[in-house]
Amino acid sequence: MPLDKNWQDIGNQIAKAIAKAWLKEDFKKQLLDNPQKTLENEGIKFAPGETVQIDQTTSTWRIEPRSATSTEAVITIPLPPKPDDVTTEELEKLINSNDAVLTRYCVKQTS
Known about the structure:
Elements: H1 7-23, H2 25-33, H3 35-41, E1 50-55, E2 62-65, E3 73-78, H4 88-96, H5 103-106
Parallel strand pairs: 1-3
Antiparallel strand pairs: 2-3
Helix pairs in contact: 1-2, 1-4, 2-3
């Protein structure tokens, strides 16, 4: 499955959604109950055949094909606990800005 050409923008949008979940319990509940619809309502588009799930036990993204021959994939997005050193003001700034100022807290970068 090819990587979307806008993957960095999608990562920033998801970082904002994670920050919003840390700030707003009702949004977090929606995100956990129906992650794909909630993220689509935030303007994030997923390709046909992609299914989204949220994992609160990790800070690492996963994209896994449904099977070895499938073009469909399951995208697992982490929702780790809010770091203690992130303030409400910083989260609000992230949610309301066009910059991914706090992406480092919301999306773990792997190499």
